[in-house]
Amino acid sequence: MKLTFRSGSSESKLPFAEHDELNEDDTAGGCGRRCSDLDQVTKALILAHLPLGGSIAVIPGFFDLTHVHNPGGAFGFLAGMSAEVRSLLFVAVSLVAAGLILYSTGRRRSAAVSVLRPGLIFGGAVGNLVDRIRFGIVVDFLDVYAGTLHWPAFNVADSAITIGVGIFAYHILFCKIRPDS
Questions:
Q1: 11 inside domain
Q2: How do residues 18-37 score in pLDDT, each as one tens digit?
Q3: Which of 39, 64, 131, 158 is catalytic?
Q4: For an engineered disulfide with 43, which of 23, 81, 139, 167 has Cβ 3.0 to 4.6 Å away?
Q5: What is the DSSP letter of 154?
Q6: Domain span at residue 47?
Q7: Which of 64-68, 81-85, 120-124 comes out lowest in average pLDDT?
């Protein structure tokens, strides 16, 4: 969103101005909604067009679309736990994380990176939460590998969470921000 501010005879366009009308798309919630929507659309395409266990080589020897179901957490964490306990735990953790992110960001507007960072984490958490509630598992399909060495399959939501946490860590380590800013 660009806003025009007039000062005398000059005009300037500023993104994410502090004192204008709030637009939901400029908030972490708006970013998160777009992220979770993209995640759910890509998963719906995989569910509709690629059978479980099916694979399509995108970059042979490096990247495939492979339809797998993940009953555990990130990269299969807790996959051996009973389904009921695991589902309850993941739903509760996702709801708490989403609530904390929304609470900490509120509906304030600030620099784009301050909106992007929690928005990506929130959107990813919601995307995987929707899968857990609907199916009891998470649909994964991005398969990165080199020869026989495979990174665990992941999805758009996992990517968003990883990028959001990476941006957050970078800013804490190199830009000297406080975790709550």
A1: no
A2: 444 446 566 777 888 999 99
A3: 158
A4: 139
A5: B
A6: 24-174
A7: 81-85
Is pTM, for the whole model, over 0.90? Answer: no
CA dihedral 68, 73, 74, 76 (to 10 degrees): -50
| CB count in 10 Å sphere of residue 7 | 7
Q: Which residues pair with 150 in a beta bridge?
A: 145
**Is 140 marked active-site?**
yes
CA gap 16, 119 in Å, rounded: 15
Nearest to 135 by CA among 32, 45, 43, 36: 43
DSSP, res 151: P
Is 4 part of a structural domain of the chain? no
Q: What radius of gyration do the chain's Cα atoms show?
A: 19
Per-residue buried b or exposed e for 73-111, using 16+ beta carbons within 10 Å of the residue's own CB: beeeeeeeeeeeebbeebeeebeebbeebbeebeeebee
In a domain, 3, yes or no: no
For 180, residues 6+ apart whose C-beta sits below 8 A from its C-beta are 104
Q: How many domains does the chain have?
A: 1
Contact predicate 95/5, CB 8 Å: no
Give domain status of residue 180, yes or no: no
**Closest alpha carbon to 156 in 39, 67, 34, 66:** 39
Alpha helices by DSSP H, the chain: 28-49, 83-105, 112-135, 156-174
